[in-house]
């Protein structure tokens, strides 16, 4: 039978070294959220529409893409994003230089006015979710549109399988 006092005596030492190591590592590596995540628990329409995830799946091909280099919240600017229709499963890729929540206010206007492919889609469908696909820095509109186009092709979001319409950017 092992002698319990020995074990009890050694435990605090190990615990102490663990605490020290944890303190050191938390200081040297700041916590960086990966993927898309909510920052507001309530009263933010965009956060409530954000899906917290580190990957996306093309609903057209089933192909999965990891988003481990992104970090997207409702206040992220210069972002390529995905809208998943939660009613029919169709997808839309968009870009914005503004904060995502400002762009999402624009989406909601489109839903009401029905003057874009996205707005037209959400006349019949109702529920959507948003996921950040790519973060850019110091980008031009052209940079973002090129990145947007790559994601449209990756995820195959052109109509009729998706919601994006060729040569119509909104
Ligand atoms: Zn928010
Ligand atoms: Zn739909």
TrEMBL record:
It comes from the Eukaryota. InterPro entries: GIY-YIG_endonuc_sf. This is GIY-YIG domain-containing protein. It comes from Holothuria leucospilota. The lineage of its organism: Eukaryota, Metazoa, Echinodermata, Eleutherozoa, Echinozoa.
């Amino acid at each position: 039978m092992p002698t319990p006092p020995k074990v009890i005596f050694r435990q605090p030492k190990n615990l102490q070294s663990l605490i020290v190591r944890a303190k050191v590592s938390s200081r040297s590596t700041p916590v960086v959220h990966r993927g898309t995540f909510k920052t507001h628990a309530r009263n933010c329409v965009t956060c409530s529409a954000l899906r917290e995830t580190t990957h996306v799946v093309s609903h057209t091909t089933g192909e999965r893409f990891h988003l481990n280099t992104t970090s997207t919240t409702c206040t992220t600017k210069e972002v390529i994003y995905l809208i998943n229709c939660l009613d029919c499963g169709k997808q839309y890729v968009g870009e914005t230089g503004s904060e995502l929540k400002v762009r999402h206010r624009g989406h909601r206007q489109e839903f009401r006015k029905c003057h874009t492919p996205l707005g037209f889609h959400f006349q019949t469908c109702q529920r959507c979710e948003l996921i950040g696909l790519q973060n850019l820095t110091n980008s031009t509109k052209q940079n973002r549109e090129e990145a947007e186009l790559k994601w449209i092709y990756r995820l195959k979001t052109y109509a009729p399988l998706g919601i994006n319409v060729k040569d119509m950017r909104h």
